[in-house]
Amino acid sequence: MLQVPIRISSRIADGIKQFQPLIESAKKRDINESDTVVLMTGIISEILGFDKYNDITTEVPIRGTFCDLALKIDNKVQIIVEAKAIGIELKDHHVKQGIDYAANKGLEWVVLSNAINWRVYKVIFSKPINYSLVCEVDFLSLDNKADDDIQKLFILTKEAVSKNLLEDVFTQKQATSKFIIGNLLYFDPIISAIRKELRQLYPDIKVDTEEVKNVLLNDVLKREIIEGDEADDAKKKITKMYRKKEKLEDQKVTDTNIPDPASITSDKLN
After folding, report:
1. Which pLDDT belongs to residue 255?
2. Per-domain residue ranges of the chain
3. Residue 221 CB: number of other CB atoms within 10 A?
4. How far apart are CA 244 and CA 231, in angstroms?
5. Which of 22, 48, 108, 131 is the most exposed place for a label (fewest CB within 10 A)?
6. Domain 6-172: which CATH class?
7. Start-to-end Cα distance in the chain
């Protein structure tokens, strides 16, 4: 759980209380995209703590055009913000332009928002460029007295971004993703552990590795979990982890087999 400093927590709580009526009013009036950007700028400044004049800009040229907003830390752009009118329901394809902008500038973070919903994406610099939804906030559903809701906005504050907490949230999500957990189940050390437990349950029955894998593949795991790009990425991460573990274990064995220099000297003297 993220620890939100009291000063920042109070700023976020007060900001939620201040801006929820403004967003409700703007929603009823169905304001256009330009006015939505003005509203979002207020939220980014008053709640998230970015200086309105130094940290928030619309002057980031990308391929002959400009992004809706960009957020800076120490005068360096960190986040591209893609805005939609408040009445537009956010769809996956809406973020593509923001991702393209960010990738073109070598930036990792994109926020897509219509002032009500705020989605944070991480750009994955693979071939082709990919992206992952890190978190999503419904501003109108926030409770300014709930710690969990305060934390949802905290990760987007200038203070959190400057400490790279978005990366920590992304890593946490990756570690508990269905692709990591699902594919981890399919690796031999975990299969061996399952077989060991099955032998405890059924001492007279022999279950081999392939039987366990077949059950996992056909009856337990969804095929989408172990097939596709995200599944392949998960397998690569797990394989890398096991290889690193094996390398460390091999090194321990090598170190254990190295003779003690003192004993060698003693033997020669005798």
Report:
1. 64
2. 6-172, 178-249
3. 19
4. 20
5. 22
6. alpha beta
7. 62
